[in-house]
Amino acid sequence: MKILIVDDDKLxxxxxxxxxxxWGHETAAAIHGAHAxxxxxxxxxxxxxxxxxxxxxxxxxxxxxxxxxxxxxxxxVLTAFGSLDLALSTVHGLGGFWFLxxxxxxxALELLIERAGAHAHLVRENQLLRRDLSFRGVLCDLVxxxxxxxxxxxxxxxxxxxxAPVLITGESGTGKELVARAVHSLxxxxxxxxVALNCAALPEALVESEIFGHEKGAFTGALERRMGAxxxxxxxxxxxxxxxxxxxQTQAKLLRVLQDFRYRRVGGQQxxxxxxxxxxxxNRPPPEAIAAGRLRExxxxxxxxxxxxxxxxxxxxxxxxxxxESMIHSLNQKYGTRVTMPGEATLELLRARPWAGNxxxxxxxxxxxxxxxxxxxxxxxxxxxxxxxxxxxxxxxPAAPSxxxxxxxxxxxxxxxxxxxxxxxxxxxxxxxxxxxxAVLGISTKTLHAKLRAYLGEKKREx
Length: 463
Ligand SMILES: Nc1ncnc2c1ncn2[C@@H]1O[C@H](COP(=O)(O)OP(=O)(O)OP(=O)(O)O)[C@@H](O)[C@H]1O
Ligand SMILES: [Mg+2]
Prior knowledge:
Layout: E1 2-6, H1 10-22, E2 26-30, H2 33-42, E3 47-51, H3 59-68, E4 75-79, H4 84-91, E5 97-101, H5 106-135, E6 138-139, E7 142-143, H6 147-159, E8 166-169, H7 176-185, E9 194-198, H8 204-212, H9 229-232, E10 237-241, H10 248-260, E11 262-263, E12 272-273, E13 277-282, H11 286-291, H12 297-303, E14 306-309, H13 320-335, E15 338-340, H14 344-351, H15 358-373, E16 375-377, H16 415-429, H17 434-441, H18 445-462
């Protein structure tokens, strides 16, 4: 170990240095507190042994200064015979120190040095462990400790370097775009562009030109040649969001890009070479989209060389606390607030919700709560009104639905609002299981999905 010995008295200091070096330690010496601080800048001591009474900076000041500096090596304080009580009371509250009365009993000192060194080792190891822990459960901007998300992380790490197409599926708000960005940033293409195109947001007539570009005069209004997303993402990643909303003819052209890396601009003759990696996402379950004729089966197989399926948030409740923690952290930075983690009761409340809007809905709720709270512990009263009550998790017998009292449904309220409240409450009781909730509500799962989607669309527009 590296030991720093601080004593103004040469007659004390030199023998001490000799003894400690004799035990096999590397030593350095300082003649007072200020000198010790100087030496510590070059000499990373594992343990400090210091006298108390010294000119310039004495031992007490040295201890105080060490404390203020944050991390400091464990320190053994040598006190004059009979002054131990005084030393203890003076240093009281400074903590982290060991005391030894003079004249120094060398075997006691040896033992203390060993113990202090072991303590320092533990502290360091603990810090490393904590850092390690904070890294676990995070991949790029993705947070998740659940088994399901850990599997997603490992898949992302595996596929990222390959350049193969990736299909990401999952309900709205489960993090499909974040996963796509993670695939890009962990790939050798990270420095080239990531271009995202939302196929659902584009008018059908424009989709092709947006993806493949067009030549001047290709159609009315095509006054200039225009680069498509494929060209813009050259060398990088093209993210095709909501790919099942892409017109089926366009899907055929996309398939060609995936198979032979060839394409033509709209209205163009020349064959161009596509140097992009395609990552696609959809919140429609592919089998349903294929059956409905919205997604070409051949494109689906080509895209899903790697298929990453994101589970709904209600199926990974362990992720809620770490997600809330990381959201609070980034929101505090965004708004300059000083909000801290909610207690277990509030977390339980959050875990009990159905989270039909998944992580996006959680983020919206936490964002509102952080703004409302401003500082201090986040709690249920900061959450949006509908989030403040625990939901009953016991599944009612479908034949005997439980009372709707307490739900806040009032005579004269719009039917849609009442319906939404009823759907949310039923989903809550069904533990987020949509098939069961739909059965209880007496509607098809498809209808329930459609209603939830419409509800989410509203929320997105509000946001
Ligand atoms: N695992 C996660 N860790 C941290 N934040 C997440 C995670 N998943 C989602 N989010 C956050 O939730 C919000 C929605 O994520 P994202 O846009 O990636 O979802 P999506 O699946 O693409 O949704 P949609 O289908 O509606 O487009 C974003 O604010 C995103 O940062
Ligand atoms: Mg998205």
